[in-house]
Structures are given as structure tokens and as C-alpha cells.
Amino acid sequence: MNKLKLQSLSVSQLNDCHYELLLEADPSIELLQAYLPDSTIFALSKEKQVIGMLVLCPCKEKSEIEIKTISVSKAYRRQGFGFYLLEEAESFAKKHQFTYLVIGTGSTSFHQLYMYQKFGFRMDYIVKDFFLKYKEELIENQLKLYDMVILRKKL
């Protein structure tokens, strides 16, 4: 993972490349715009090319911080960059004295569910019909996406 750079960004610093990656993970610009101002945003670059995004947002429960978005560009997937971003999220959460790291993903997001559990997350609960509020129908792994699975990791 040489020549990697993780940079903290403000909302005003985000460009089209950043939004393209963010929208791959969360295809609702309205939802992104709602949580980005209260979030800590990181861009992962390799050789000056943005290849990943990580967005962390404190939860209502003060001991928890949520990974709102984690995204790696298609050309760099399954090469350990997602795991690297998870490690950075955990490091940030510990540094800021959070007790739990939380992440939500689609019930049809099989690869992500595997990766998060491999990283130590445990399933916590399901938000039924969460993805029905999106303007467009979401299909993942040839299945219509309805529910969000929430996972937590004790730090």
C-alpha cells in the first residue's frame, strides 16, 4: 500500500471525482448533502489519483461513530483498500474515544457484509424498507434492495 495518501477534506473541497465515489456507495445526493456537513470526510489517493472515500459521522448515541460511506473505485476493489479504510475508521474512532464503530449496508451487499464481519463487526439490527425511500429502485446482486443491515464493532 505504498504511495497512499489519506487526506481530510471539508465539504467545500469535494469535487466531481469525490462525489462520483460517494454516490457509488450512497446513490442519494439528498442524503449525502444532509449528513456531509456534520461528518469527517477522507479521500484516499494513490499516485495523486483519488481511489477511495470514507465518511464518518457521530451518532446520536455519544459513544458511537458511524461509517456513513466507504467507497473504493472499481479498478481498485478487492486489493485491500476497503480494509485499509476500515482500519483508518477504527483508528480515528479510537483516537476520538468512541466505544463503538457502526456501519449500515444493504441486505443484498454480500461482499460488504462478509468484509465487515471479517473486520470484526457484528450484526446489530435491520432497518426494514430503508432503501424504498430512494427515488430510483436499487438492484444489487440481481436482487431488489429493500432493507439496511446495521453492524457494530466494539472498540
Automatic annotation (TrEMBL):
InterPro entries: Acyl_CoA_acyltransferase, GNAT_dom, NAT_camello-type. It comes from the Bacteria. The keyword Transferase applies. Residues 4-155 form the N-acetyltransferase domain. GO terms for molecular function: N-acetyltransferase activity. Keywords: Transferase. PROSITE patterns: GNAT. CDD domains: NAT_SF. PANTHER family: GNAT FAMILY N-ACETYLTRANSFERASE (PTHR13947), LD18367P (PTHR13947:SF37). This is GNAT family N-acetyltransferase. The lineage of its organism: Bacteria, Bacillati, Bacillota, Bacilli, Lactobacillales.
